[in-house]
Amino acid sequence: MRDSAIVLTRLSRRFGATPAVTDVSVEIPAGEIFGLLGHNGAGKTTTVNMLTTLLPPTSGDAVVGGKSIIADAAAVRSLIGYLPENVQFYDNLTLVENLQFFGRLSGLRRPDARIADVLRFLDFTGHDSQRLGTFSKGMRQRVGIAQAILHAPAVLFLDEPTSGLDPEGVRTLRETIVRLNKELGLTVFMNTHLLSEVTRTCTSIGILNQGRLVHHDTVASTLAAYPEEQSLEEIFFQLERAGTP
């Protein structure tokens, strides 16, 4: 049995009197590509913000890479990479200059060798000296992944990674995520609302509805539990309705 890379135990977050995430408990084995699904406002980004230590939980806890997000937040940050939905760079700097800056922020004293390895892996050949302001949205997302994996994390968090991308950009990013998982062994936790991408990318899924986890299983088992003609979209709505309080 594989060790768990991420364990949530009754993880909750309230904003004033409003619950955003309520008593979410789930274990994600190392080596998974886990997709967290849900409508806007379901609590997906709040969950990721807690797991990446950007937002403290109101109650409960989570362990990422064997470290508590409450008791060992600094250790968690050293073990994870994070790509937010709207990644920000210095557009007047080149690709390499941006990564040098962020590499030093990550604690890499001599980041150039690691940057070269990451750029080769992500197929950025010929773009080293190109300014980020000239990059497409899809290329910027891949630069965001480069930044997120510079320090060789064990777990990678992606918040709506394909948002705003054209079909070619979606395909390229999907292939990149799968390679990160298969070739580098990263556990990937991604929020997404593109259900079509889940079946192509994720190995397991969770569904949030009004801040509560209403489903968690492998993609294969989820699809197998329903008639073959049902799409994941139809299954998603059925599971979501079943979990509505």
TrEMBL record:
<feature type="domain" description="ABC transporter">
    <location>
        <begin position="6"/>
        <end position="235"/>
    </location>
</feature>
<dbReference type="GO" id="GO:0005524">
    <property type="term" value="F:ATP binding"/>
</dbReference>
<dbReference type="GO" id="GO:0016887">
    <property type="term" value="F:ATP hydrolysis activity"/>
</dbReference>
<keyword id="KW-0547">Nucleotide-binding</keyword>
<comment type="similarity">
    <text>Belongs to the ABC transporter superfamily.</text>
</comment>
<dbReference type="InterPro" id="IPR003593">
    <property type="entry name" value="AAA+_ATPase"/>
</dbReference>
<protein>
    <submittedName>
        <fullName>ABC-2 type transport system ATP-binding protein</fullName>
    </submittedName>
</protein>
<dbReference type="InterPro" id="IPR027417">
    <property type="entry name" value="P-loop_NTPase"/>
</dbReference>
<dbReference type="InterPro" id="IPR017871">
    <property type="entry name" value="ABC_transporter-like_CS"/>
</dbReference>
<keyword id="KW-0813">Transport</keyword>
<keyword id="KW-0067">ATP-binding</keyword>
<dbReference type="Pfam" id="PF00005">
    <property type="entry name" value="ABC_tran"/>
</dbReference>
<dbReference type="InterPro" id="IPR003439">
    <property type="entry name" value="ABC_transporter-like_ATP-bd"/>
</dbReference>
